[in-house]
Amino acid sequence: MEKFALIVAGGSGTRMGSDIPKQFLVLNGKPILMHTIERFSDYDPAFKITLVLPSAQFAYWRELCTRHKFTIAHQLVAGGNSRFQSVKNGLNALPEQGIVFIHDGVRPLVSAATIRNCEKTARQSGNALPVVPVIESIRQITADGGSQHADRSQYRLVQTPQTFRLGLIKKAFQQEESPLFTDDASVCEAMGETINLVTGNPENIKITQPSDLKIAALFLEGLTPAPK
User: Fold this and answer.
1) At residue 12, does pLDDT exceed 90?
2) Shortest CA distance to 15 belongs to which of 217, 207, 216?
3) Are 32 and 106 spatial neighbours (Cβ–Cβ below 8 Å)?
4) Is 119 exposed, middle or buried (0-12, 13-18, 19+ CB in 10 A)?
């Protein structure tokens, strides 16, 4: 089965305190989004890459590619009014067969091991969701406005790429959009599918605030493709 990376990047720079959408902010000399695309191309140059962006950002992205001499092949698809609609638009541009890795554009630190874990399990079982353990103590807010201790061993932090057989996830995205759909796995799960958890990598953070850029710059130095 062919492999497809569907990279969704529709964020703004609001929480970053920037007028530039966060996927275009510079990290170690080039836009975050270029690092993200490179993670998949470095893992396997045969990856077919689709980038979902707001259509108003197409020209700026092409300008950045020219400026940074970024030549990794990819197709552009216009995003929608929500992440659900953006992912659906991207899926509609892909064939019916294959494995699709749906990934946040501002997660440039996904490791080769995480991609490999997702690929292996999705091929075998239809889907794969990378997660990492919760290492902080957590509390649950109660109905009366108070809080109570929660057992962190019963929880996992969810990452991307959330990975699926294409036929399965395209069928799932035929459902009506719901506020309960917080990610792609929840869309698939609503169709009655069991979601398979795989080991992610702790460095695979989503860049949303200025401190994340500094952390990512340090982590990026140590992320190299693992041998096949």
Assistant:
1) no
2) 207
3) yes
4) buried
